[in-house]
Design a protein that fits this description.
Blueprint lengths: L4 E7 L2 E9 L39 E5 L2 E5 L1 H7 L1 H5 E8 L9 E9 L4 H14 L2 E8 L2 E10 L2 E7 L21 H14 L11 H14 L19 H16 L1
Parallel strand pairs: 1-5
Antiparallel strand pairs: 1-2, 2-6, 3-4, 5-7, 6-9, 7-8, 8-9
Helix pairs in contact: 4-6
């Protein structure tokens, strides 16, 4: 793996030199964009809006418009804003992970210690494991400040970027049902179905089956076959059908288990 960020974890007065690596990779198929007339690849270019000519990466700069003029910024300018923030994952608080709503979770990264930070890294990992708490930290990557939790995962310390509160949309704009009258029998049946489907979570049991099915379609088309189209029929349940559908769900689960 190639590191995408180099800096240090700030833990009180302790600095732990680390490298950051992406902890995830995409699982979907790598589909190319093509011109349907001759199947040539579609290429994207960075074009000067005045000349219409492509611009090389080396000639692209970042700027902020102020009083109808652009102020051009380089990497030294970003560091000058706050050199510590651009190079430090600063832990400011600790809490229990379950106190953080899952809506805030975003992207996970692995943190690897530099040789000079191995003991301090191991100490922080052990302390987090012992207390069963996570660190709340801020850091700057690609000129944008981020919020994250720091937690151990087996031998690695994981940084999981989380969203700021202002990044979450207000659900009050949605058309949601008011408190509906729920019959006790229906609620008991729904709880029974939940209990029957409850098991210890095992992530390895879940696979990206859509990509596998799509690959079957691709292989079939490559052989000249035309895959049969399937349709999904959405059943709009009437209130009086809820009990019968819940019963049928429980029966189907029992048959599958046997």
């Amino acid at each position: 793996m190639r590191s995408i960020w180099t800096g240090a974890i700030g833990f009180g007065l302790v600095n732990i030199p680390v490298k950051m690596y992406s902890a995830t990779e995409r699982s979907e198929l790598n589909l190319d964009m093509l011109d349907k007339t001759d199947l040539s690849h579609i290429k994207y270019q960075r074009v000067n809006e005045k000349t219409g000519k492509p611009v090389d990466w080396d000639n692209i700069v970042k700027g902020y418009k102020m009083d109808d003029k652009y102020v051009i910024l380089d990497e030294k300018d970003f560091e000058a804003a706050n050199a510590k923030k651009t190079k430090t994952i600063e832990i400011s608080d600790f809490c229990k992970e379950e106190e953080i709503d899952s809506i805030y979770f975003e992207t996970p990264y692995y943190l690897e210690p530099d040789k000079s930070g191995v003991r301090a890294y191991a100490l922080l990992r052990a302390a987090l494991q012992k207390t069963k708490k996570v660190g709340i930290a801020t850091f700057v990557m690609r000129s944008k400040e981020g919020l994250a939790i720091i937690r151990p995962s087996d031998k690695v310390i994981l940084l999981n970027r989380i969203r700021f509160a202002e990044e979450i949309r207000n659900s009050s704009e949605l058309h949601l049902p008011e408190e509906a009258e729920i019959k006790k029998g229906e609620l008991d049946m729904a709880i029974s179905l939940i209990d029957q489907l409850t098991s210890k979570f095992d992530i390895s049991a879940f696979k990206d089956t859509y990509s596998a099915e799509l690959m079957k379609v691709i292989e079939a088309k490559s052989q000249g076959a035309k895959p049969a189209a399937t349709k999904m029929h959405v059943v709009h349940s009437a209130t009086e059908d809820l009990m019968s559908q819940l019963k049928a769900s429980l029966t189907a689960k029992k048959k599958k288990a046997s």
